[in-house]
Design brief:
Elements lengths: L4 H4 L14 H10 L19 E3 L2 E3 L50 H8 L13 H9 L12 H10 L2 H6 L10 H15 L2 H8 L5 H17 L3 H8 L5 H18 L1 H10 L13 H4 L4 E6 L6 H11 L3 E5 L2 H13 L4 E5 L2 E3 L6 E5 L9 E6 L11 H10 L2 E8 L4 H10 L3 E6 L6 E3 L15 E4 L3 H14 L3 E5 L5 H12 L5 E6 L13 E4 L3 E4 L2 E4 L2 H8 L12 E5 L5 H9 L10 E3 L3 H9 L6 H11 L6 E3 L3 H10 L7 H8 L8 H15 L18 H21 L10 H21 L11 H7 L22 H21 L1
Parallel strand pairs: 3-9, 3-10, 4-7, 4-8, 5-7, 8-9, 11-18, 12-14, 12-15, 13-14, 15-18, 19-20
Antiparallel strand pairs: 1-2, 5-6, 16-17
Helix pairs in contact: 2-11, 4-26, 5-10, 7-9, 7-11, 18-29, 19-28, 23-24, 24-25, 24-30, 26-27, 26-30, 27-28
Length: 818
């Protein structure tokens, strides 16, 4: 089911959940009668089959989220994941359907335990040829985690002879029955239990949050140690850490929780009352406790609006800059520190902490909402209406604990921001700015084609193929040297290319770029030349939006540059009227009508706890469809997250937290090598095996366009590894410093590759198609591309099958869209 923001918004929405019973109610009743919790007919609940008895033991159907390989798992992309759960394998018994009562342990056969330990076969690999094969080759030598299934006989003995009531009734001097080896063995069993993602997910079904589970599992270990009897010691001594043993310990853990953590479970249950997202500003009590002041700096590109905000931030005792791009965060980090104001840099892939710092510069998703500051800046505020990332701007607008918040952007979001501020009881001061230099349309176009470009020109194209083709044509037909900038290049490489273009003595005086120049770089551009005003988005040709045209064209004629005015034109003269029309649209005429929204992590976690056995894609889709959102907001698109979640279904042993972290990883899903790398890392993590980087930069810089593409992919995979290393236990991602060294080397080689890039040409041809063919490009760039078409990218049958599934999903969506 495709999520539609319009369907998810509006003053009217689905009713809150409240008509069903939750598993914990039935379990609690079997131990202590009616639950002692506040009554509420609106509490979110779910019906489950009847739970049977075996003597004094209860037998439960596996009704929790982690009870199958489809278990959803989430961690916030917006929160600290240092507490992300370690995981162990998911028991085969956990794959039973909700409607089936859990059979006795005797029905568990040895063959099912063997199947749970069976690992997928790995295809032969050539580390010298395949990026992903290099990763596998670099990590296969790491020690594997313990996932041995408990002996069925021993588990049966524990199930038959030991009950919670018997343990509870024992005298509290169990340590007398524990020798040193017994104590270590008990610790190992409880370590496997408490680190199991499957068990953590099952705990959600009885309203045990991750925080409560962490504390309670340790206290449960102390309880068993204190209440140890010779019979219990004998039964435990025969067990081995693993999924089957974890299930039996969980049978004892449930009544323990109802006995000693009743209040905590009841409190968490009350919280899970509704999926109501209509008042998201109430999610941030720290910000609501303050009387914040907003200052909206509204103006076009090259109007000085961000400069004024930065001056205010740097003059404050403490400050925070929040921007949409790593490149912007890096620019502010460098500029702030150069002015003697100590500033940290925090992005998804990088942390630069300056001793004694009082300021921070970060990407919007990384903003810390728990650290009060005097002055904050939210840059490009109009992106609050972005269909994919708008939620991040809504989050910082409503949740930043800052006395004074400067909003920078065009004027399109003024009314929306004023409305949101009014709901929070806060006010907005509007400051309007005009361009420092005039911007005109060059109606003549580019007479003479690409060979007529002049120093200071920037040709804007919307595909990598077009950018390299135009570079080849200009350098083949003229004496100009060309710099290139596009989103696939690392931020450091883009900055280097910008410096070369801005330096009048470098010899580089022409720039070919994508819409990546619209934000984050100060460039000495005389004239912006659009190759086209159309681009491909998700397989469909669309017109470039008015806001994007104005932002890109506005890069021409920067203040303090060599040019007193800026010019904009099109290669295709038929498109010049459209360009003129877009530039004439007044700032106030542009509208950002709605703010993007997504739930916070704890809301998704609680919601998932109500859907036992549901896969993460189903949880996300259902939440998006049924959450209550008023007309001010829209539910951001999560197609990419859901797509990755579907691929991750085959990986067992990931907790709710873990699975969602991997789904939020910053990768291009069109790149099979990156998808394969993510799946490989997820599988290694599910096995609790060390994930060494296993990659090195090549010995020489690339000399071809294809070589550049491979090196860019390598950079992105190393960046992915670093992103994951900041969200999972550092012990599983060893030698982060080496990864940074590899990245630095890759950036140096990309810089050298762009200087020495050899694109063969037939003399000084002015035929772009001829140049494209000689450059190794296809005559027509595909609008969509199956990731299977990229050869030699998959390191195992497991990854190949996952990639094929992703390709099939894309094909089905494409057919539906047409």
């Amino acid at each position: 089911m495709e999520l539609d923001a319009n369907d998810a918004s509006g003053p009217e929405g689905p009713p809150p959940y409240g008509s069903q019973a939750h598993p914990s109610d039935d379990l609690r009743a079997r131990y202590e009668g009616p639950a002692q919790v506040p009554s509420s007919s609106t509490l979110p609940r779910m019906s489950v089959p009847d739970l049977g008895h075996e003597g004094n033991r209860w037998t439960r159907p596996v009704t929790t989220l982690a009870s199958s390989v489809h278990a959803p798992a989430l961690v916030t992309s917006r929160g600290n994941s240092s507490n992300a759960a370690n995981t162990s394998g998911v028991s085969p018994r956990s794959k039973r359907k909700l409607s089936q009562p859990r059979p006795g342990l005797a029905s568990q056969t040895a063959s099912s335990d063997a199947a749970s330990r069976k690992k997928p076969k790995t295809a032969p690999q050539d580390a010298s040829k395949h990026v992903i094969a290099s990763i596998v080759a670099g990590t296969n030598s790491a020690a594997g985690g313990t996932d041995a299934a408990a002996d069925d006989t021993a588990v049966q003995e524990l199930a038959a002879k030991i009950s919670f009531e018997q343990i509870k009734a024992a005298e509290g001097k169990g340590y007398r029955h524990l020798g040193p080896q017994d104590a270590v063995h008990l610790q190992n069993l409880m370590k496997s239990f408490s680190n199991s993602g499957a068990i953590r997910n099952q705990a959600l079904a009885i309203y045990a949050s991750n925080e409560v589970f962490k504390e309670a599992s340790f206290q449960f270990y102390k309880f068993l140690r204190t209440k140890m009897t010779p019979e219990l010691r004998g039964a435990l001594a025969q067990l081995r850490p693993g999924a089957a043993t974890n299930d039996q310990l969980f049978d004892l853990f449930v009544p323990y929780m109802f006995t000693y953590y009743n209040d905590e479970l009841a409190s968490y249950k009350v919280i899970v009352s509704t999926m109501d997202l209509r008042r998201p500003h109430l999610w941030y009590p720290r910000a609501r406790a303050m009387k914040r002041r907003f200052i909206y700096h509204a103006g076009p590109t090259n109007s000085g609006k961000t400069y004024e905000a930065l001056q205010a931030m740097n003059a404050a005792e403490s400050g925070l800059y929040v921007g949409p791009l790593r490149l912007l965060a890096m620019e502010v980090f460098d500029e702030t520190n150069s002015q003697g104001v100590y500033c940290d840099l925090i992005t998804g892939q990088e942390r630069k902490l300056v001793p004694g710092s009082s300021h921070s510069s970060c990407t919007v998703e990384m903003a810390n909402l728990n650290k009060p500051v005097d002055v904050a800046i939210i840059d490009e505020i109009q992106m609050i209406g972005d269909e994919f990332r708008g939620w991040a701007w809504t989050r910082v607008l409503q949740g930043l604990p800052a006395q004074e918040i400067h909003l920078c952007g065009d004027a399109s979001a003024i009314k929306l921001v004023e409305q949101l501020a009014s709901e929070m009881g806060e006010t907005v001061e509007i400051k309007r700015y005009e361009r420092f230099t005039p911007l005109h349309v060059d109606h003549k176009g580019l007479i003479g084609g690409l060979q007529a470009v002049k120093a200071g020109d920037c040709i804007v194209a919307f595909s990598r193929r077009a950018i390299y083709t135009i570079k080849a044509v200009i350098e083949a037909c003229t004496d100009h040297k060309v710099c290139i900038i596009y989103g696939g290049l690392p931020p450091e490489t883009r900055r280097t290319q910008a410096r070369l273009f801005n330096d009048p003595d470098s010899g580089y005086n022409i720039l070919v770029a994508s819409d990546a120049i619209g934000m984050g770089l100060n460039l000495n551009i005389r004239r912006i030349i659009f190759q086209t005003l159309h681009k491909f988005a998700r397989g469909t040709e669309v017109s470039v939006g008015t806001s994007a045209i104005k932002q890109i064209a506005g890069r021409a004629g920067r203040r303090n540059s060599a040019y007193s005015q800026g010019l904009a034109t099109c290669i295709n003269r038929k498109e010049i009227p459209s360009l003129q029309e877009a530039l004439e649209v007044a700032q106030d005429a542009m509208k950002t009508p709605h703010a993007g929204i997504l739930p916070e992590w704890d809301q998704l976690e609680r919601f998932a706890g109500q859907l036992p056995g549901q896969a993460l894609p189903a949880v996300l889709t259902r939440f998006g469809a049924e959450a209550r959102i008023d007309g001010t907001f829209f539910f951001c698109q999560q197609d990419g997250v859901i797509e990755l979640a579907q691929l991750l279904e085959r990986i067992e042993g990931l907790s709710l937290n873990d699975r969602y972290i991997f789904c939020l990883a910053p990768i291009s899903r069109r790149n099979i090598q990156m998808v394969a790398a993510l799946l490989h890392y997820a599988k290694r993590y599910s096995e609790q095996r060390a994930i060494a980087l296993g990659l090195e930069a090549p010995a020489e810089a690339p000399t071809t366009v294809g070589g550049m593409a491979q090196l860019e992919t390598l950079h992105q995979i190393v960046s992915l590894w670093l992103w994951l290393s900041f969200r999972f236990p550092e012990a599983l991602f060893p030698d982060r410093e080496h990864a940074f060294e590899v990245l630095e080397t890759i950036v140096e080689q990309l810089d050298e590759g762009l200087r020495e890039l050899s694109i063969p040409t037939a003399g000084r041809s002015n035929n772009p198609d001829a140049i494209a063919r000689l450059s190794g490009f296809k005559s027509k760039e595909p609008t969509t591309r199956s990731i299977i078409e990229l050869p030699d990218a998959v390191a195992s049958n497991f990854l190949l099958e996952a990639a094929e599934r992703l390709a099939a999903q894309r094909s089905q969506r494409s057919m539906r869209s047409h």
